[in-house]
Design goal:
Radius of gyration: 28 Å
Oligomer: single chain
Strand order of the largest sheet: 3-4-5-2-1-6-7
Shape: globular
Length: about 475
């Protein structure tokens, strides 16, 4: 028995699939990505089944057999029923067309136009492969089944690139030509479906070449037309590339940093790995780098000496990113992360300038640490990638990428040191202490005082309750004088 059929035999013994096949009296086929991943030896967690019979009745029988509700998703003729049990997801859908061959011919890519008849005797299993998808898998090729299928569901335009990135496949020229021809159709697709595919694509360890191909064939700009003005937009002498080329170079650098954090931040690799393990975190960091300079074209100016500036481009870029996130129905947390990194992506460089001028204070470092909270590493990884794609003569005069990398490591060390100081130290005063000591009423002023005391404690300015109350009195006196 060949490896794929050994894996199938093991899969059929799983309770979820075994009970389903016993409950459903009609032909059942394992299809699409489930078969593809079995052939590649990848772990199968999602079981896609096509039922050659009444779908709703099959879902009811399966639900009763496995003891969980079958949840209907979508609408006819694309409706599916989903069941989650024992760490697996099972999707039941109906047969499109008169037989399984017709069904497969309506699918997106040849590597997904695969099926196995689960009701066939174990000694007669055969992969149903009308589009030579197995051969394409062996040769690491990605291609559409048919151009007409794109018109049925334009999301397949993105899926071509997503699977290419995730499975390390080469997209075939005829399929790339179809992308260029039909790229504008992507805007017919619901934003939440685009979001899902885009995050999966950017979640691939190496998506740079795929994103570049999407730009070359018009798909990325069809999705995000705000990128178009970046083309050919020249920059200051800190840069050696125009804005679009800089953005792509930064994406390539960020992917390398994410894959090898110990190389760039040797003392912090475990913390960085923990940060990156959050859901969709690498993908969101890559999306932020793709969008971080969207504000530059509209804010570009030159002074009397011909020097180029992009004043407040981070603020304009943040608003652009927020609009894009809304268009693609991104979650509140996802949108917040994008907005935060884009809004503050210059902060590490401002602190580095202060450090080189010997003006950086522990207070300045503490405020960045407090500002970033749990996203310190998102901002620092972004900054290093941004710097690696910024190699103009002005940047070289300030020490180039090596100086930036050294400073970011120093900054992280100082922030972690301050956080440890706060964690091991006692809480010097509470809000109630301030209310009583100074006969105050509850107001935002209390929060400002507590933050000032926390800052002073982290930076070593105050070490006990008496000093903390003295600082509060000093700040209250200043407020009184300025009011």
């Amino acid at each position: 028995m060949t490896p794929i059929y050994m894996r199938l035999a093991a899969l059929k013994r799983l309770p979820l699939l075994d009970l389903t096949l016993k409950a459903v009296p009609w032909p059942v086929y394992l299809v699409g990505g489930s078969v593809r991943d079995m052939f590649l030896g990848r772990r199968v967690r999602d079981l896609d089944l096509v039922v050659d019979g009444p779908l709703e009745e099959a879902a009811q029988k399966t639900s009763a057999a496995v003891g969980v509700r079958a949840v209907p998703l979508g609408h006819s003729p694309k409706q599916i029923y989903r069941l989650n049990r024992w760490g697996l997801t099972l999707d039941l859908c109906h047969l499109e067309g008169p037989d399984i061959h017709s069904d497969l011919l309506r699918r997106d890519l040849t590597i997904n136009a695969l099926a196995l008849d689960l009701k066939a005797p174990d000694d007669s299993w055969k992969i149903i492969d009308p589009c030579r998808g197995i051969m394409d898998l062996k040769k690491r090729k990605a291609r559409f089944v048919a151009e007409a299928n794109l018109l049925t569901d334009p999301l397949r335009l993105i899926r071509l690139f997503r699977l290419s990135a995730n499975l390390n496949l080469t997209i075939q020229p005829d399929s790339l030509a179809m992308v260029k021809k039909h790229a504008s159709l992507i805007n017919r697709t619901a934003g939440e479906r685009i979001r899902e595919e885009a995050l999966l694509l950017l979640g691939a360890p190496r998506s740079y070449k795929t994103v570049t191909a999407m730009i070359e064939h018009g798909l990325l700009e069809a999705l995000v037309p705000e990128i178009t003005p970046l083309r050919g937009c020249g920059q200051s002498d800190y840069h050696h590339l125009n804005v679009l080329d800089h953005t792509l170079a930064a994406l390539e650098s960020l992917e390398e940093i994410i894959c090898s954090p110990k190389k760039h931040f040797p003392a912090f690799a475990p913390e960085i790995r923990t940060y990156l393990d959050q859901e969709h975190c690498p993908a969101l960091l890559k999306l932020s780098i793709l969008l971080h300079d969207l504000g530059k074209p509209s804010t570009k100016s030159a002074d009397d000496e011909g020097r180029v500036h992009f004043f407040r481009h981070e603020i304009v870029g943040e608003e652009c990113a927020a609009q894009i996130a809304a268009r693609f129905k991104m979650s509140g947390a996802e949108t917040t992360l994008l907005r935060f990194i884009i809004r503050h992506h210059l902060q590490p460089f401002h602190l580095m300038e202060a450090h080189q001028a010997r003006h950086l204070t522990p207070k300045g470092i503490f405020r960045l640490g407090r500002l970033t909270g749990g996203n310190l590493w998102g901002l620092l990884l972004h900054a290093l990638a941004d710097a690696e794609a910024t190699q103009g003569p002005a940047q070289d005069k300030k020490g180039g990428v090596a100086a930036v990398r050294s400073f970011l490591n120093y900054l992280a060390m100082e922030i972690y040191s301050q956080r440890r100081e706060l964690a091991k130290g006692p809480c010097l005063v509470t809000g109630r202490d301030l209310l009583v000591a100074f006969n105050l009423k509850p107001s935002p002023q209390i929060g400002r005082l507590l933050r000032a005391i926390e800052e002073a404690q982290a930076t070593g300015r105050v070490r006990d309750r008496t000093a903390a109350l003295a600082l509060a009195a000093e700040l209250l006196a200043q407020d009184s004088l300025s009011s």
